[in-house]
Amino acid sequence: MRLDVISIFPEYLAPLELSLIGKARQDGLLRLEVHNLRDFASDRHRTVDDTPYGGGAGMVMKPEPWALALEALLGRGGAADPEPGAKPVLIVPAPAGEVFTQRIAEELSAQDHLVFACGRYEGIDERVLDWAQEHFTVRPMSLGDYVLNGGEVAVLAMVEAIARLLPGVVGNPESLVEESHQDGLLEYPVYTKPSSWRGADVPETLLSGNHAKIARFRRDQQLLRTAARRPDLLRGLEVSGLNRADLEL
Ligand code: ADE
């Protein structure tokens, strides 16, 4: 998979050189490049923003540096032999985007080429997103209902969520299976040694060695925890194993 990130703060993306993602890059499992938007500005001051038409607070990112930066990436797709007509996906982090979920991370992990356009200030001139649709599948994406200062932190989160799903990135692929959101539920609580700690005991079932009982216990814990913390996730699910009434839905 090829990943390109365009930002006016390329240093913000330095953590992508660390840990599992850094190792995956070294091992050639993904190719990730960070580009400075200011390299595509045309004036001496490398200006990338201007005042908004219609007035209002803050600044808006100018269209031309974005178009030049994105054009420079076209034709440099991820697959050696990309499907004819397959467009790279352009992800634009913004609080006004679609909410990024594990399902979307899975969907995007199957793509050959992802481009992340990090907006700052009040955002990018909307005409860039319209123009880009000819060359990219454009996906405005939000991490959640809160406002960050720019797209970089959101890109760190999204790249990590996507890249760890690529074959070979996470050492033990089984650890991907029993995670929060993988089956639409939150993960069950986990415990390690000692079995008794400051007066708190590990639930007895987990010490029983009875795998069927353990699986049942964990599933119940997933349902109870999801009902308590994220009842919205249960609404669309067929809940089996526990009575819906037990969950006070
Ligand atoms: N940029 C600013 N706020 C954001 C958010 N909530 N998600 C993604 N990108 C953002």
Automatic annotation (TrEMBL):
Binding site for S-adenosyl-L-methionine: 119, 143-148
Keyword tRNA processing: yes
Superkingdom: Bacteria
Catalytic activity: guanosine(37) in tRNA + S-adenosyl-L-methionine = N(1)-methylguanosine(37) in tRNA + S-adenosyl-L-homocysteine + H(+)
Enzyme Commission number(s): 2.1.1.228
Pfam family, one: tRNA_m1G_MT
Cellular localization per UniProt: Cytoplasm
Keywords attached to this entry: Cytoplasm, Methyltransferase, S-adenosyl-L-methionine, Transferase, tRNA processing
GO process terms (BP): methylation
Entries under PANTHER family matching the protein: TRNA (GUANINE-N(1)-)-METHYLTRANSFERASE
Role summary: Specifically methylates guanosine-37 in various tRNAs.
Assembly description: Homodimer.
Similarity field: Belongs to the RNA methyltransferase TrmD family.
Protein name: tRNA (guanine-N(1)-)-methyltransferase
Lineage: Bacteria, Bacillati, Actinomycetota, Actinomycetes, Micrococcales
